[in-house]
Amino acid sequence: MKEGVLQTGFFTSNRGNGAGNDDLYQFELLPLPPAPPQPATPPVTAAPRMRLDVIVLEKIYADPANPNSKVLGRKPIPAASLEIRDGKAPKTVAVNEEGSYSLPLAEATDYQFLASKENYLNNASRFTTKGIGLTSGPEEQVFELEIVLDKIFLNKEITLENIYYDYDKWDIRDDAKPTLDALAENLRLNPAIRIQMASHTDCRGNDNYNLELSQKRAQSAVDYLIAAGIDPARLQARGFGETQPAVTCVCARCTEDQHQANRRTTFAIIE
After folding, report:
1. Which of 92, 121, 172, 235 is the most exposed place for a label (fewest CB within 10 A)?
2. Residue 114 is part of a domain; what is its CATH number?
3. pLDDT tens digit string along 122-177?
4. 207: containing domain
């Protein structure tokens, strides 16, 4: 039997157009040819069931040139950069004209974001899908995360809230530490800036004494930031005593609120 032939045989037939009355025929049974290759079916990927809309914003001040003026609201920052980290290689994207970027979310994943734009201070935020259960229906779960960037006001003093000192002392109180911790984190996120920490007193007391006291208080704030890991070369301490009041009033007639406004600790970005 020839190679590749499954079966051979003979049969007779008296069909028309044959060579005679009864003709003898030979046949061979061959294997069927292989089926043509089928195109590869791409794997079915489920559509993301969770989405995060990250929105980058800035504050709207009553006086656009004064960072200590009343905040009236917030508005988007178009084309800000957004660095995204989720345990894989980080990627950087640009938000749209509405200050927004939509990110499909994976389950049980931690996300870190760093938003930045020229002439603004960087700011960071986090989001996690750990502990978030998917809904039973086909609807997509949408979450929102806002990141606010502070505009850089070069050489403009910004008052730090909740920085108070006991009478005649310059030690950093416990209730001031959260504010200074937040400032330290801001400095870590913006390693290129240098700041001046300043302290001011109210008008009561001797001028020279107030000047010395305010210098000690400013230095205490700088020392706290250094202890938090900030490079001393990025920090400058300066006490102004009562020479630069935030509220001008006749000292004997100043209200306690006016004295308190003048007794302040500030920082200014100097480069």
Report:
1. 92
2. 2.60.40.1120
3. 999 999 999 988 777 778 899 999 999 999 999 999 999 888 888 788 999 899 99
4. 158-269
Residues 184 and 256 in one domain: yes
Structurally, how many domains does the chain consist of? 2
Residue type, 141: Q
User: Is 111 found in the same domain as 189?
Assistant: no
Q: What length is written for the chain?
A: 271
Looking at the fold, whether 75 and 118 belong to one and the same domain comes out as yes
Q: Please indicate, yes or no, whether residues 197 and 260 belong to a single structural domain of this protein.
A: yes
CA distance 156 to 119: 14
Contact of 239 with 266, CB cutoff 8 Å: no
Q: State how far the Cα of 265 lies from the Cα of 161, in Å rounded to an integer.
A: 8
> 12, 27 in Cβ contact below 8 A?
no
Q: Which two tokens stand for residue 224?
A: 């706290």
Residue 35 in any domain: the answer is no
Q: What are phi and psi of 221, to 5 degrees?
A: -65, -40
1 occurs within a structural domain: no
Distance CA 98, CA 96 (A): 5
Torsion angle defined by CA atoms of residues 214, 215, 220 and 223, in that order, rounded to the nearest 10 degrees:
160
* DSSP state letter for 79: T
Tokens found for residue 227 = 């202890």
* DSSP designation for 174: G
Q: Which two tokens stand for residue 92?
A: 């950087």
